[in-house]
Every structure is written in structure tokens, then in C-alpha cells.
Amino acid sequence: MFLIALYSCFFSKGIGTRTAALYVAWARQFEQKGMNEQADAVYQKALENQAHPASVVLHEYNVLCFVSLQCRNCLPKSFVHHQNSMFVVWL
């Protein structure tokens, strides 16, 4: 749980909040502990904060959605309307 707390601290201080690496590492810690709903919330934060590269966030989030089938949405509607790039959404 140390790494989860560390990533949460970084996020709360605004460190790396536009970088996909922060969110992916943070979400993976939750995934490894079977806490997929929390991982989903982290990916949602990444999308809301427009973390870059977006393709990395989208890929990792779609993998979580495919594997767990517990995500609220694979992509929030607001993100779909603001992006014009190619990506795969698991339905």
C-alpha cells in the first residue's frame, strides 16, 4: 500500500498529473491487489486531466475494462467528444 499512498500524494500535490506514467503505475498497484474499481477511478482521473500520451492511458484502461468488465465506462462521453484519434473500445 506504500506505493498507492505515494502516487496519491503525488497526485494531491499536482506532481505528474498530466503524465500517463503516474496514472498507469498507480492503477497497476490497485490492479495487482484486485482493487479494479479503484484502478478504474485512477484511469478516469487520467482521462479527465488529459494525461499524455493519451494512447498509453487508453490502452491500459481498455485492458482493465476487458479483463475485469467492472469499469463504469471504457471511455467517458466527454473524452470521446474531445478526441479525434483512433482507439479501440471494448464493449
From TrEMBL:
Report domain BUB1 N-terminal positions.
1-91
Pfam families per UniProt = Mad3_BUB1_I
- PROSITE patterns xrefs: BUB1_N (PS51489)
Xref: InterPro entries: Bub1/Mad3, Mad3/Bub1_I
**What GO biological process, any one, is recorded here?**
mitotic spindle assembly checkpoint signaling
A Gene Ontology term for the protein's cellular component: nucleus
Alphabetically, the GO molecular function entries are: protein kinase activity
Q: Which domain of life is it from?
A: Eukaryota
Q: What is this protein called?
A: BUB1 N-terminal domain-containing protein
Annotated source species: Amphilophus citrinellus (Midas cichlid)
